[in-house]
Structure to design on (704 residues):
């Protein structure tokens, strides 16, 4: 009995927690007062309220650390929001852990949320030895606190940022990560692990409409390249009126940075809903026209990517017609990844 | 103003609702008192309480109908449960609509739940003409009522069951549909649309442990073939003690029906959690031993399928290490579907 009790105690050992602020914060767009916000909106007072609220979401942020612990736990708090119907609570307000294995980042476990403050052991029973870890934060909620827990006596140290350069991605809910099943499957996160580059997530669910104050904010961000995936949220009229200002303002502040524009992905329910189908077609025709106009006007290093296979041919790549599921994201990346790689390499950006 | 008001009224037209019980119920395992339960558990009093509760979930049920309406709406109620962290509310307690297009079932829209009783327009703005529809019910909740809404004056009629034969599938949460993003992506549902056969969902999340009363219940079900995907929930010891009774009892009641056994899929966190990794290995070694023993004892028409590529090589195929996401399900079916088709064809079961 004594032995059994000892074993149980050993397994249920209380983790020793350290604030994640003492480790390495990856994917950060700009310094902020609240460490897990993406942008300090007080610096940009004219942006729309919806944009300001979304910039408090911790999408794209991750903590890099190394430990010799055989378990990794976390305690974290998020705002009182709960997941929307087309997302899991894990992707919305949970955590996602990757560990380096054979030179590659490999999924290791999730942090399942349970209310606004949660404690969870993401992985246990690991072998001895040091592990390099990357812990993705919630995509759709504000993370108000985060502590990493390891076994008593184990090491826990910051790991240098594993990603090079800065590729700023501005876009819609799809970029922010709806509807991946967990934070690490958001497509900027997958791109970072695939290429070794730091793809920064400025996904603004439903609110990527290229407003002038947002364009000014984007142009103020330090980056080596810019990706614009904002067509799904912008009406054809908005695309017509706003694309040139956004591209030209970025170009003015970043004379040499390539700008990559992604057309809207398919909306699968648009196969039956004729209004939706026609809108996506009009959006994509309009962005093509605007990009061509800019190229003719002499803007250099501007690219419109293509999306020929959409999310596959079986129409199973979305959760709700609009937002890719993990299958749709995988098919999307099969098309976009080679285009990203080829263009970035032209600018002496080393791509894995 | 009057014109605008008229247009608004026309778009917001109240649907005319009909109880789904007047249409065709697809995927039904046995007749039940509550129409959206899978089995009347009062007929099998000795089954474990968890199994009884899960049999009230509407997993695998769908409504087949035809309509010339340009919109399809639904009103439905489920139990007070809410989605677990590794599932969307859509898959847990929402609806999923497919419409026949060019001879194939194609995703058309979802019913987003909003509390215990919801009303939602799944698709609108469709063209004129008759559509054949298949509406999947919630996978993880009890559906207590369901009405289908069409535009005033539109037709709404039962559609003959589009699927042939009856393939009874008994298994774990993965079979029940965790963690597909919506009900129509559960793997038995995908198999039905792919093959034209009626794969019946007897997924019992966490509770597919081959208990004797459950084995007796399964053997009592009318079916042309049986698929057993219960290894993930059963300990190696349970597999050793219970597999023979389950298989022999089915064989006794169904002398000629093929029995297909699926080994456990990978648990991706088992790459790091050595206990989990060892358990899956032991489960799969045990089921192989039991199937081989049964074959040696003279049981005919018994098959152990294989799962060589698991959920892919990038380890991104699960939401939480255990439950496939839509990417994992797709990879799983790429391996299992040809095996299902080849075996079923041997038994003169016509497969699309």
């Amino acid at each position: 009995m004594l032995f059994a009790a000892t074993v149980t105690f050993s397994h249920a050992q209380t983790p020793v927690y350290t604030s994640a602020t003492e480790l390495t914060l990856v994917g950060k767009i700009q310094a902020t007062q609240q460490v897990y916000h993406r942008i300090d909106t007080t610096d940009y007072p004219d942006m729309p309220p919806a944009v300001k609220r979304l910039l408090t979401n911790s999408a794209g942020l991750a903590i890099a650390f190394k430990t010799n612990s055989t378990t990794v736990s976390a305690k974290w708090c998020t705002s009182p929001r709960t997941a929307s119907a087309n997302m899991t609570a894990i992707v919305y307000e949970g955590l996602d852990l990757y560990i380096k294995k054979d030179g590659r980042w490999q999924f290791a476990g999730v942090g399942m949320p349970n209310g606004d403050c949660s404690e969870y052991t993401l992985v246990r029973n690991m072998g001895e030895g040091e592990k390099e870890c990357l812990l993705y934060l919630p995509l759709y909620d504000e993370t108000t606190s985060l502590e990493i827990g390891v076994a008593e006596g184990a090491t826990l140290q910051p790991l240098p940022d594993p990603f090079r350069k800065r590729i700023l991605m501005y876009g819609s809910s799809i970029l922010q990560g709806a509807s991946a099943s967990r934070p690490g499957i958001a497509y900027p996160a997958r791109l970072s692990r695939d290429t070794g580059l730091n793809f920064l997530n400025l996904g603004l669910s439903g609110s990527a409409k290229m407003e002038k104050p947002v364009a000014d904010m984007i142009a103020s961000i330090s980056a080596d390249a810019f990706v614009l995936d904002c067509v799904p949220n912008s009406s054809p009229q908005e695309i017509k009126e706003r694309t040139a200002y956004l591209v030209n303002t970025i170009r003015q502040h970043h004379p040499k940075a390539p700008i990559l524009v992604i057309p809207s992905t398919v909306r699968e329910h648009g196969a039956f809903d004729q209004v939706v189908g026609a809108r996506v077609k009009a959006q994509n025709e309009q962005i093509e026209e605007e990009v061509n106009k800019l190229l003719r006007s002499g803007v250099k290093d501007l690219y419109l990517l293509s999306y020929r296979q959409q999310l596959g041919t079986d129409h199973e790549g979305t959760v709700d017609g609009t937002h890719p599921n993990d299958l749709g994201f995988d098919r999307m990346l099969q098309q976009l990844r080679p285009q990203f790689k080829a263009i970035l390499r032209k600018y002496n950006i080393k791509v894995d």
